[in-house]
Specification:
alpha/beta, Rossmann fold, 2 domains, 8-stranded mixed β-sheet, 6 helices, binds 5-O-phosphono-beta-D-ribofuranosylamine
Length: 196
């Protein structure tokens, strides 16, 4: 049984979808939900789902990324995860942290990578006049939003879409894609999954 730790920064809707998927004959189970924000509402949702939680406030560390990550590593390593899932986790991780989990750390990004790495992906898609958008699950490497792609889901951009209406449509796709990719990944299957 693979042990999965999930890192969040906010509401954790992707975390909830992942936790809810890991039941029955699924080869993985959630062992920890950790956040860089002790007030993240996703922590309460994780506890309601019976998953252990941990939080390390990144703000007191300021620019000391290494110090923050050392503190965050304590509860993560104590949970002995086989797989790390970043899900709405909004901190850039140092290469040292990434190296420790390379090949077994996933992230979901709200664009069809390699288009629109970084922030404000929906606004950029709308401003570019794209007719489709979506989300990508990829392995996390030292380069931001650039690791091997494990899955993508496409959604239409509708005329009159705002950043919020597009984000909401993509989020629904995220909640389908991430659990499907995690299951395959936990079974050792790294073939990219492409959802319409
Ligand atoms: C969402 O915009 C999602 O695209 C990105 O992080 C944001 C919050 O996700 N991955 P969540 O609801 O905290 O999972």
């Amino acid at each position: 049984m693979k042990r999965v730790a999930i890192l969040i920064s906010g509401g954790g809707s992707n975390m909830v979808a992942l936790v809810r998927s890991m039941t029955g004959d699924h080869p993985a189970r959630p062992v920890l939900v950790a956040s860089n924000d002790p007030a993240a509402s996703g922590l309460t949702r994780a506890r309601d789902l019976g998953v252990a939680t941990a939080a390390v406030d990144h703000r007191p560390y300021g620019a000391d990324r290494e110090g923050f990550e050392a503190a965050l590593l304590d509860p993560i390593l104590a949970a002995r995860p086989d797989i790390l899932c970043l899900a709405g986790f909004m901190r850039v991780l140092t290469p040292d942290f990434v190296k420790r989990f390379e090949g077994r750390m996933l992230n979901i990004h709200p664009s069809l990578l390699p288009k629109y790495p970084g922030l404000h992906t929906h606004r950029r898609a709308i401003e570019a006049g794209d007719t489709e958008a979506g989300c990508t699950v990829h392995e996390v490497t030292a380069e931001l939003d650039a690791g091997p792609i494990l899955g993508q889901a496409r959604v239409p951009v509708e005329p009159g879409d705002s950043e919020d209406t597009l984000a909401a449509r993509v989020l629904v796709a995220e909640h389908r894609l991430y659990p499907a990719v995690l299951r395959r990944f936990a079974e050792g299957d790294r073939r990219p999954l492409l959802l319409g």
